[in-house]
Amino acid sequence: SVIHSYNVNLTARTTVLTECLAVYGIVGGGVFTNGSTYGSFHAGGGLEYRLTESFGLFADARYKWLDGGDITLTSVRIGASFVF
Q: Cα–Cα distance between 26 and 7 in angstroms, integer?
């Protein structure tokens, strides 16, 4: 089945060692719906390595609690970021 997710995130990011490497933390919440609607909260963190000023690679993970903790999910993302 299809699950729709709407989220709002707060991200705190800081560089470490060099200006190319950054660590960040993420917290947020939102709604998951697929006929039933669940409130959600998530927290996680990640790393980003900037190859240029406008292009980087990242990896992060988030743990999500739905419906007051009755349902939990873990997500891991690896990708590229473009800064405009």
A: 12
Tell me the C-alpha distance between 70 and 66, whole Å: 6
DSSP H stretches of helix in the chain: none
Matching residue, tokens 């390595």? 49
pTM of the model: 0.77
Yes or no: say if 40 and 66 are a contact pair by the CB < 8 Å rule.
Answer: yes
Specify the amino acid at residue 83: V
- Number of other residues whose CB lies within 10 A of the CB of residue 66: 18
14-67 pLDDT, tens digit per residue, is 999 888 999 999 999 999 888 888 899 999 999 999 999 899 999 999 999 988
H or E stretch at 31: strand 21-33
